[in-house]
Amino acid sequence: MTKKIAVLPGDGIGQEITEGTVDILHTFSSLFDRSMTFEYGLIGGHAIDETGDPLPEATVTLCQSSDAVLLGAVGGPKWDRNPSHLRPEKGLLGIRKALGLFANLRPVKAIPALLSSSTLKEEVVRDVDLLIVRELTGGLYFGEPSERRQVAGEDAVVDTLFYTRSEIERILRKGFELAQIRKKRVVSVDKANVLESSKLWREIAEEIAGDYPDVTLEHMLVDNAAMQLIRTPAQFDVVVTENLFGDILSDEASMLTGSLGMLPSASLSETGPGLFEPVHGSAPDIAGRNEANPMAMILSAAMMVRVSFGWEKEATLLEEAVFQTLKAGVCTKDIAAATNRAPVGTSDVIAEIKRQLQELA
Ligand code: ATP
Ligand code: MG
User: Fold this and answer.
1) Which of 3, 88, 151, 153 lies deepest, with the highest CB count within 10 Å?
2) Where is the Isopropylmalate dehydrogenase-like domain (predicted)?
3) Structural domain boundaries enclosing 128
4) How confident is the model at residue 3, as a pLDDT?
């Protein structure tokens, strides 16, 4: 079955890394006889310039009618002074909402070729292979900040951490399901010693754990989890947590194994298309200079073909092509310094990944 991919390059380096990634996916498609079509949509600053709207209706329709969405990055200094409804980030928030994306997945895996460049000791990060699953629709990110200020009055503020049973249950189930296809261990992170929402979270985790008898469940308080992530990160498989805790822990975890240019992410809905994007932003400082590391986005595409299309074996080969490229010493400036290599351009990295993929196929 042909898979339809909505491609949203966005702004800054989003443009060049998307071009390279789609190029690789064409090679992937013919090597593995997996049929994909690509349809392009506008989002972010480019969409504002062309249509006056950071998320044109046509883009929403395109994404909703696709099997998956591949997104580069949005934003840049050109639009920084725009009024709030004309900000590039509005496009990203809007598409997340329109697609009902409630689970944000950030895998962090040790990359042998980059181990020595980690700020942590090599033996601490060597076996890291974890997945942070962050709830994306509830929690403290509830209501507009200005409204909250008015509720409390001049010299007091209030934030609301709100969750419904069904929101908690669906993210926990996603965590258990993902653990089933990984190392079968879930660590549920909360603050159940102080927060009511965390007490309910823990109760629900216990209730549904019985539905996944092959997965072990452990509860961990968020402060402890923050410490354990630095102390012994290799102990984790799937970490599932609420919105704010997940925001903080996923940024913390992302630094375990190296560069921002290497980190993929996925955001999933209940039944509709998922959205796959690199963790990094549009990096306007290096945009258009053939310097951007395309690997985070290519690894995001690998997550897409694995999670959304079920092409497990091929996804692993695509990831392997990226790792072999690093091993061969072919990399962009962001990693070159840390690994004592001479940097090459984005397009050279793309060409080498294609070559490696052809060899592996
Ligand atoms: P955003 O607010 O959109 O998340 P940010 O302020 O977090 O953006 P990024 O755009 O993610 O910033 O990147 C920060 C810096 O890291 C960039 O300015 C760039 O120098 C570097 N960087 C980010 N991604 C890459 C990449 N793929 N390749 C090379 N360098 C990168
Ligand atoms: Mg950022």
Assistant:
1) 88
2) 4-353
3) 108-263
4) 98
